[in-house]
Amino acid sequence: MSLSTAALILLASGRATRFGADKLMASLDGAPVLSRAADLGVGDGPIARLAVVAPDQTERRALLSAKGWTLIDNPHPEHGQSEALKYGIDAALDTPAERFVVVLGDMPFVIDSHLSALAGAVEKGADAAISLSGGQRMAPAAFARRTAPILMTAAGDAGAGPLLKQMNTVVDVPMAPENARDIDTPSDLSKAEAAYG
């Protein structure tokens, strides 16, 4: 399935307090962690590529702009991932997208074919499609446009997870463990770097 009728929403405004520096700009195999997520959706042609960033995250903003993303300001990144999600959904509602595919800037190993599988599950009628790896639900995820009122009630740092119980049909889409890695700590980055070795 294609992403061509979806809006791709990249959440990249987190403060990365556990990392001790800007983890999204840390080098992974010679490029910033964020650059890998920022390359998603280039070939599959989503209706919109919307990146949620804070106004003062100048390096992230420059990278994302150079890769063709439309920047969406999140003036309150300290309020957690749910705040970023709401800004992204609000911007996506200004597009004709029928589905919203949400990805995280600290997951550098996600691949386009997985995003297409998520979007495809929603295209077939699900309210939401969630990645499943190691028995755990996680990002990325896709949502039907009709779920926007629910998504806009997100609160805290849990994102859309707690809201799934309000949706009628939620589909789990398997994701390979090597694609499910995220970067939260310097140790995570070291392990990810070793994966390239």
Helix-strand topology string: EEEHEHEHEHEEHEH
Distance between the termini: 32 Å
Query: How much helical structure, as a percent, in the residues?
Result: 25-40%
- Give the biggest beta sheet: 7 strands, mixed
Strand order in the largest sheet: 5-4-1-6-8-7-9
Looking at how many chains there are and whether they match, the oligomeric state comes to single chain
* Secondary-structure-derived class: alpha/beta
User: Cα-atom Rg, whole angstroms?
Assistant: 15 Å
What integer is the average pLDDT? 91
Residue stretches low in confidence (pLDDT < 50, at least 5 long) are none
Strand content: 15-25%
Shape: globular
What would your notes on this structure say?
- There is one protein chain.
- This protein is an alpha/beta fold and 197 residues long.
- It contains six helices and nine strands.
- The protein has a seven-stranded mixed β-sheet with strand order 5-4-1-6-8-7-9, sandwiched between helices. A two-stranded antiparallel sheet has the order 2-3.
- Strand 4, helix 2 and strand 5 form a beta-alpha-beta unit.
- The mean pLDDT is 91.
Care to give the gist of this entry?
This protein is an alpha/beta fold and 197 residues long.
List the helices and strands and how they pair.
Blueprint: E1 6-11, E2 27-28, E3 31-32, H1 33-38, E4 48-53, H2 58-66, E5 70-73, H3 81-92, E6 99-104, H4 112-123, E7 128-133, E8 136-144, H5 148-151, E9 170-174, H6 186-195
Parallel strand pairs: 1-4, 1-6, 4-5, 7-9
Antiparallel strand pairs: 2-3, 6-8, 7-8
